[in-house]
Amino acid sequence: MARKLDFVRDPITRLIVRTSLPMLLGTMVSMAVMVANVFFMGNVSAEAIYIRSLYTPLAFLTIAIAEGFAISSQVMIARFKGAQNDVAIRKCVTHFVTLVLVAMLILVITIYISAPLIANFFGLQADVKAMFMSFLRVMFLTNILVTFTVVLFAMLRGYGHVKQAVILSVGYALLNVSLVFLFSVYWHQALLSIVYANAISSLCAGVAAYFLLFKQKIVQLRFAHLREMKSTLAMVGRVGIPVSLSYLVLFISTFLFAKIAVPFGEAAVTGFKVAWNIQVFIIVPALAIGGAIGIIMNHNIGAGKPFLPRVFTTFKTGVLLTCLFYLVFSFVMLFFNETLARWMLAEYAEAVPYAVDYLNIVAPTYMLMGAILMTTSVLEQINRGFMALWMNAAYFATIIVVSWVLTAQLGLLSYFYWTTFFANIAGVSGVIFVFVFLRRSYGKVTQVDQAV
């Protein structure tokens, strides 16, 4: 049996690798499942596909809430675990279960009431409008289970059970895609295929995660715990809200990026979207590495003053490993971007040059982009969420404003791509700032600081 990880004493490089690899695997499997689900849903009617596409941006509301609570609970539990305070962890679990339930019920009720207004905003015809409203309401109701599952997985990671959380995450994803396939292809449930698949897979994975937490004797849901929620609410305010806002910034930015390409034609928009989707798969490892580093840092912060130097050492080592990882990624993308773009745009050859141009220009800076994203991910998990939010907002706002002006004035879409290139270079200043900040806060060396 493999030795259990000791987040406050094991060598840091080994910790980062052994923690980030399973998290990366779980994330990549989940993203592959999303792609597979879109493919399977191609078997339903055109109206169903259209309604599913309208729901996609609204799904960011659930994602924002789920990730906000997930990272907040992961941070808090990791710190209490580092301090070996299981009593506080039990209270923390009760607090987050209650907060998730309240927040999601408010969201579901809001969506239920506003569904007609949302349908009118999209200008839907009467026959499609009824279908859209019904799907929207039942999907958000199902998202209560999805959100609980995401948060329970985060609690497991925060407690140090990263592998178990990843196994459950992969199992959830595989069950989900299998059910979507069965319900859509064989049982012809159309839009309800996603609803049924999400409900069943979330229920199964959520119960399994709850059982593992219960087995560790850290789940004791008591009303008395609700009287001591002040610190949990403060954590949500410092960590959860900035994380949720960052997801909304990402959604708005992606929408505006596509708008920049609109004047250059449908092929330009399609090519950019495909290049952006490829890039999303590329940047995911940075978020997984950042999540792993955050868990290690929080365990050491919770362990107390003698272990604080390991916090800075963990970040420093994480930056180095991220840059090395993305250096390889950059070369791979430069050599294979055209092959990948042609495969993804097999039915739309006119869009291929736009996707290839974007990747040729931006790919050389993926090493820097990886370090930037890893850094913002870490900041979100060490009570510096608003710093990460401002970094994200400044990065995306700069690209949007400068690109919009240059492409409008000079009439070349490549200026959008080059703006992203230079924004990635300029973004390194944020990494340097955080590096100096953490060195000043945690960088004093003591005998407890382990060898890397």
UniProtKB/TrEMBL annotation:
It is a multi-pass membrane protein. InterPro entries: MATE_fam, Membrane_Transporter-Flippase. Keywords: Cell membrane, Membrane, Transmembrane, Transmembrane helix, Transport. The keyword Transcription does not apply. It holds the Pfam family MatE. The chain crosses the membrane at residues 21-42, 54-80, 92-115, 135-154, 166-187, 193-214, 235-258, 278-297, 318-336, 356-379, 386-409, 415-438. It is found in: Cell membrane. GO terms for cellular component: plasma membrane. The keyword Transport applies. GO terms for molecular function: antiporter activity; xenobiotic transmembrane transporter activity. This is Na+-driven multidrug efflux pump.
